[in-house]
Amino acid sequence: MKKLYVLRGAPGAGKSTFIKLHDLEWYTLCPDELRILFSSMEKGEDGHYRISQKHDKIVWETFYKILKYRLSIGVPTVIDATCSHTKDINTYKKYADTYGYEMVIIDFADVPLETCLLQNKKRPVYKWVPDEVIEKIYARYATQVIPEGISIIKKDEFKGGINS
User: Fold this and answer.
1) CA distance 14 to 159
2) What is this structure's pTM?
């Protein structure tokens, strides 16, 4: 069966690094990549450039259009996003079911908050996320439910290969 992999974890948890380590870039949809395409970088109050979220309406509309199209033609797909809301998981599950995919969450939500904060500061400056935003996303994992019918694996359980 075809699989839709959804990475779930706070910024700095290692999702993008995981994608690179497993050579999954060609299969990956990432909202941050679309944010860069739609609006480039934005200069923050601290003088550093950051990924803008001002155009998220069109970013997410486009993200879902691409996702639906990829699934409709049977393309293996990995989603690189925080996935911290049950409603997002439900949306991905609906698309997976519609197009005959098994949905697998690769869960990074157990990466310690301190690790996420530290790794965030090691990223290129334009990818930095404010600590308070990471803390808020991280806390949300304790309150959000993963619906039934979705496989959940830890990052270390991924055996490699897009259809493993």
Assistant:
1) 17
2) 0.89
